[in-house]
């Protein structure tokens, strides 16, 4: 369905401001001509935008930066501090503003500085990045009634000690800088907990450096987990299933701090019209077909068929094949001549991704950088709509298991049995999922009933890809999936906190950020929130319309408290 997108005047002005480099690509035109064109276009857009804003009432005078600080006579405009651009570090400035917009990130940084056993004068030496970033975010979190500019130099110098190959004074990718910042924080924590010259035996035998008897109820492992596994840490499960025999070929658990999503493309450099963030997530977890995969289970099935077809049964061989557990590394093939077991050696497989653990802060990277057919780096242009409240539960491992549990319960009532698979695969997978939640310190009591059902019922023998023979679910069994599903009432909701937008070409340009700022009764008699547009040291208030018409590159969502 086509979606109508309302373009804000603020968005057009930002496009004009950061998009003038397009004119430089036109050859044969004088600099004077460029200036004339820029002036005419700027005046035209400005006058037209002002007329539209006044006529439709999209903006009040207080929304224009530099205008009166009052709207009516009771509502003030609040600001947060801007950040100096010390060369070309706008990519890092937007990341620090985005992290400051997430209410649980600053307390996470502060915890280790409060709980640790370092003296006050030792902290800047032992953990320079964490100290500098905590101090800067503390100032960025302050809601002010006037504009202020801060210097990010201390953070950049401290971060440079860990990412010497990543030049922080040149134009870089904001998503890459974000991951470098988090990895630097993790490296700093590891250096603090474990001496660099320690052996594995020393680490096991010696008491933990962070053990503090005065903090009752927290084990050494729990304290390490609290300080190392931050609010941005999530996990993804990757499962590879054979389409011929439905056995699980492999299962991997990977951690992530930023969810990389590829926009749906209409043409080489354009995003599909009407593309949404949910569409991108569905595309990310969609089944991926893998051809010519060597499946050991398929060979064993062929061997059993061969033995069963013989008039004289070889019970010893049949028992060996049926009891084999080393599917991919066994010597069962030596029991047969090459011409006895007819199997080409390859099968088709399906790879599926699921979110196994949802982080407290969800960072989404809409990967607009792409490669043209000529091998040139291009930027995917186009609008991708994103919601203010995002529900991540439908894309989680638990949601899929609940849907499949309902499916197999309904099919069992109708006498339809699941496909064959070794029961240990599903039990092992559910145990791994439980361990993920335990490592993260989350309460998994609410998943216990689901796990027990799946392990104690016949569903122990089904896979994550039940329809291995076809990608299309027959109409006759669609009601079995949708009917009575309990997953529809479950939610893991996130609230949008900031939006990062990039202007220009992939290898150059400028980053700016839209940041949601909440203020309470300490700042105003009328608690509420505002959206601010921050471009380095320039901070101005904008409407929600301007935020939700941005061509986002990075999105930061924070998990709602009732869904933690």
From TrEMBL:
| UniProt entry tagged with the keyword Coiled coil | no
Signal sequence range: none
Membrane-crossing residues?
A: 33-55
Q: Per UniProt, which keywords does this protein have? A: Hydrolase, Membrane, Protease, Thiol protease, Transmembrane, Transmembrane helix, Ubl conjugation pathway
EC number of the protein: 3.4.19.12
Q: Which InterPro entries match?
A: Papain-like_cys_pep_sf, Peptidase_C19, Peptidase_C19_UCH, USP, USP_CS
Mention any one GO cellular component term assigned to this protein in its UniProt record.
cytosol
Q: What does this protein do?
A: Recognizes and hydrolyzes the peptide bond at the C-terminal Gly of ubiquitin. Involved in the processing of poly-ubiquitin precursors as well as that of ubiquitinated proteins.
What family name appears in the similarity comment?
Belongs to the peptidase C19 family.
Protein name, per record? Ubiquitin carboxyl-terminal hydrolase
User: What is the source species?
Assistant: Dioscorea cayennensis subsp. rotundata
């Amino acid at each position: 369905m086509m979606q109508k997108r309302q373009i804000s005047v603020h968005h057009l002005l930002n496009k004009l401001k950061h998009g003038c480099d397009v004119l430089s690509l036109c050859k044969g035109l004088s600099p004077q001509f460029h200036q004339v064109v820029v002036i005419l276009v700027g005046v035209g857009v400005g006058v037209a935008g002002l007329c539209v804003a006044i006529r439709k009432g999209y903006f009040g005078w207080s929304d224009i930066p530099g205008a009166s600080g009052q709207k009516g006579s009771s509502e003030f405009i609040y600001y947060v501090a801007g950040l100096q651009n010390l060369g070309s570090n706008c990519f890092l400035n937007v990341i620090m503003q985005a992290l400051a917009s997430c209410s649980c990130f600053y307390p996470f940084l502060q915890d280790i500085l409060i709980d640790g056993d370092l003296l006050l004068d030792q902290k800047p030496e032992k953990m320079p990045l964490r100290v500098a970033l905590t101090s800067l975010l503390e100032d960025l979190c302050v809601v002010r009634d006037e504009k202020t500019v801060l210097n990010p130099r201390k953070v950049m110098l401290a971060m440079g000690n860990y990412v010497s190959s990543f030049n922080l004074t040149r134009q870089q990718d904001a998503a890459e800088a974000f991951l470098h910042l988090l990895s630097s924080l993790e490296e700093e924590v590891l250096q603090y907990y474990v001496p660099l010259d320690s052996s594995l035996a020393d680490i096991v035998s010696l008491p933990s450096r962070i053990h503090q008897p005065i903090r009752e109820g927290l084990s050494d492992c729990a304290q390490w987990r609290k300080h190392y596994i931050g609010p941005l840490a999530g996990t993804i499960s990757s499962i590879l299933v054979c389409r011929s025999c439905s056995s699980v070929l492999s299962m991997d658990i990977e951690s992530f701090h930023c969810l990389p999503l590829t926009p749906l493309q209409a043409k080489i450099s354009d995003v599909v019209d009407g593309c949404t963030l949910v569409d991108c997530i569905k595309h990310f977890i969609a089944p991926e077909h893998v051809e010519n995969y060597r499946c050991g289970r398929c060979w064993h099935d062929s061997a059993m068929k061969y033995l069963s077809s013989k008039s004289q049964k070889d019970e010893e061989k049949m028992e060996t094949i049926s009891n084999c557990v080393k599917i991919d590394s066994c010597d069962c093939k030596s029991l047969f001549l090459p011409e006895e077991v007819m199997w080409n050696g390859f099968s088709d497989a399906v790879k599926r991704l699921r979110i196994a653990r949802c982080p407290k802060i969800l960072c989404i990277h809409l990967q607009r950088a792409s490669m043209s057919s000529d091998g040139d780096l291009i930027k995917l242009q186009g609008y991708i709509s994103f919601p203010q409240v995002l529900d991540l539960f439908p894309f989680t491992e638990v949601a899929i298991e609940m849907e499949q549990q309902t499916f197999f319960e309904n099919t069992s009532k109708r006498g339809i049995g699941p496909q064959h698979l070794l029961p240990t695969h599903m039990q092992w997978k559910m145990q791994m999922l439980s361990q993920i939640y335990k490592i993260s310190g989350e309460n998994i009591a609410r998943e216990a009933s689901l796990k027990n059902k799946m392990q104690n019922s016949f569903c122990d023998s089904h896979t994550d890809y039940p329809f291995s023979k076809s990608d299309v679910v027959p109409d006759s069994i669609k009601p079995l999936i949708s009917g009575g599903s309990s997953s529809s009432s479950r939610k893991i909701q996130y609230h949008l906190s900031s939006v990062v937008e990039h202007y220009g070409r992939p290898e150059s340009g400028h980053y700016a950020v839209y940041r949601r700022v909440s203020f309470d009764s300490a700042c105003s008699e009328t608690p509420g929130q505002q959206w601010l547009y921050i471009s380095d040291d320039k901070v101005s208030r904008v409407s929600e319309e301007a935020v939700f018409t941005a061509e986002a590159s990075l999105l930061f969502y924070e998990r709602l408290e009732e869904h933690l």
